[in-house]
Amino acid sequence: MPGQFWQTGKVDVKLKNIRQINYPKGHAVKIDRIELHHIKMPLVHPFETSFGLQTERPGIIVSVHADGLTGWGECVAHSRPDYAPETITTAWHVITEFLAPGLIGHPLNAPGDVFTSAGYKMVRGHNMAKASVENAIWDLLAKAQGVPLQQLLGGTKQRVEVGVSIGIQPSLEELLARVDRFVAAGYGRIKVKIKPGWEITPLTRIRENHPRIKLMADANSAFSLADAPLFQQMDKLNLLMIEQPLAHDDIIDHAALQSKINTPICLDESIHIPGDARLALALKACGIINIKVGRVGGFSNALAIHNLCAEAGMPVWCGGMLETGIGRAANLHLAGLPNFTLPSDISASDRYYRHDIAEPTFALNTEDSTITVPQGPGIGVEVQLDRLKSYRVRRTVIK
Ligand code: OSB
Ligand code: MG
What we know:
Elements: E1 29-30, E2 33-49, E3 52-66, E4 69-75, H1 88-99, E5 107-108, H2 118-122, H3 127-145, H4 149-153, E6 159-161, E7 164-166, H5 172-184, E8 189-193, H6 200-209, E9 214-218, H7 228-234, E10 242-243, H8 252-260, E11 265-267, H9 274-283, E12 288-291, H10 299-312, E13 316-318, H11 325-335, E14 358-359, E15 370-372, E16 382-383, H12 385-391, E17 392-398
Parallel strand pairs: 7-8, 8-9, 9-10, 10-11, 11-12, 12-13
Antiparallel strand pairs: 1-5, 2-3, 2-17, 3-4, 6-15, 14-16
Helix pairs in contact: 1-3, 5-6, 9-10
The structure holds 2-succinylbenzoate (OSB) and magnesium ion.
Magnesium ion binds next to loops.
């Protein structure tokens, strides 16, 4: 039945907006240096979406240094403004010119104190740039307190339910074989990318082969409201959800489409701030929200969106951006929050990279399609500096 997996009802979380988050306070730290590391990581398998083909993942790794401790964050902007308006170049510019300088020497008792720094008060938008710095500070402050990041965020799960995101493949046979391989590897939820001409047939064939699997489709904005009949056909396939079928900057047409289909729509690209989530809720534009910490500007906004969705009875899950072990560790801590009730796009390390830049790497717990939240201080993984350097193409220091 449509909706059988996702109707989880209300989760008991008190409504807090971004200004009401109770940031746990520790000792004040003062950042003496921020470093940016522009990396290029080769992917083990090309990743094709409706907006293009990726064979490597560019990224900016941010390290913030204070009192002998280092906090790590990852910027998920692409080289091109294809998924979101930001790029590696715009993020580099905004971090080096505006966000980072205002944080040097700025006292931080709690993660929310980043918002009183000069750069954060001045910069509008640029969520992926902001998230990479804010999240590195969350890691730093968790390490200063000697606790796992999860504890600062308010998450409690030891294991997080996950799935795998499968790109558009050169042929239907290759797609079906790839789905079979991931199902055999223990993934209990399969997401496939769709685009016009690559939707009903691949989804129908996968459903025939795997009648009970949690199956979903991600269109990355490739369709329009005129395609409503296509999505009505998908109602027969018992999909867990359809992710971002319509324009990246639309909410209102998604509401129109949602009123015509039973399968829940999940918004990804359209949600950047808590206000977008409130609008989507008010308009009934979706049944589910994908929270990507980069897209929403950091953990503070991610928490705010998580909390307001929990209050409204709307389930969320954690999206992925092919992160390295740094960003994926952060995602695992976030996905430990109570309203992350659907499987997240956080796959095992070997699905992305031959040599990840952080240790330990992540493996799938095959008995329940979960990944264990790392329990050391902060994000709980150690960045391997030699590996980071081997993938690094540019570095800068702000102090
Ligand atoms: O739309 O969810 C998406 C990767 C890059 C850009 C957009 C998306 C994705 C994914 C990858 O689906 C999920 C993952 O990191 O495993
Ligand atoms: Mg998506």
